[in-house]
Every structure is written in structure tokens, then in C-alpha cells.
Amino acid sequence: MPNAITVIRLACIPLFLVLLFGRDDRVAAAWLLAGLGASDWIDGYIARRWNQESEIGKLLDPTADRLMFLVAITAMIIDESVAVWFAVAVLAREGLVAVAALVLGALGARRIDVTWWGKTATFGLMFAFPLFLVGHADVTGADLWVALGWAIGIPSLVISYYAAAEYVPLARTALVEGRAARSGV
Predict the structure, then answer these.
(1) Is 67 in contact with 61 (CB distance < 8 Å)?
(2) Which tens digits make up the pLDDT trace of 140-171?
(3) What is the pTM of this model?
(4) 2-183 has which CATH code?
């Protein structure tokens, strides 16, 4: 079930683009993006609660998160509904983590589980971006939506960089343990 939710999340990414650019409906795109962010938490909860965690799910879920961030944030930069500096800061962190994971995997490290801080940052960012979208729509109280986006987005961005730094010692341990397991030590 959790993996099915993740696959549905991935399948909804093109729908987000259709809503934003094809229908020019920032509010609907924001609701979809918020729903995709909420479903990220839901699939993790289901996996843990009903003991449905899987190795493929542990790989697929963060991949879906990063792909969703990449597509949604790039689209929002094009749409001019998010500050470029903020979007670039989020994408740079996501890119750094993705490249580090690939390099560590190639070097033989065991997989690193997502930390509480990493989950917290992702959760906050997944709601900040929809708030920015609504704040740039033709809605009542648009400035309030943007202010809420900043109120959630800035702390979440800071936490995301803290979480990235937190992964450095975890990566060292994962590399040592992964290599030891492969060599039979």
C-alpha cells in the first residue's frame, strides 16, 4: 500500500504541471502539491504502523520527494510564484543530498535512513511551496498566504541544511559498515 501511494504521487506530477501551466490554476496546483506532500507523510505512517516497510519503499519514497521538488520548484520559478533565491537554496540542498547518496552507494556504503530532522524539513517545505503558489494566485488574502509560506519555509530551509550536515557522520559510518559487510569482516 505505501509503495502504491508513492507511485500515485509520482503519477500526479504531470497533473501538477497541467494545472499550473495548462489551466493556469495556481490554487488547484497548490492543493494538489499540498496533497502530494501530505501523502508523503501518510505512506510513511502506513508503512510503519502496519509493518509494511520495504527496501524498495525506502528508496522510492525519497526519490519521489526529490523528483516532486525538482519539477514543482522549477515550474514555480518559471511561473514566478516563488523567490528564485529560496528555490535555488532548496534545489541546491536536494541536489547535494542526491549526489552524495549516489556517490556513497557507488563507494559501497549501506543505505542511510532519513532522519527526523530531514523528514521535518521536507514536511515543512512541501507545505511552504503550495502556500507560495496560493499567495501568487488571484485570491483574497494573497499576502497572508505568502507570509505563511515564508513563516514555514525559512525555518524548514534552515532545518534542511542542518539535516544535511547531520548526514555527514552518518555517511561515514554507513560507508565503513557497508564496506565491512561486503568484505565479510
Answers:
(1) no
(2) 999 999 999 999 999 999 999 999 998 888 88
(3) 0.85
(4) 1.20.120.1760
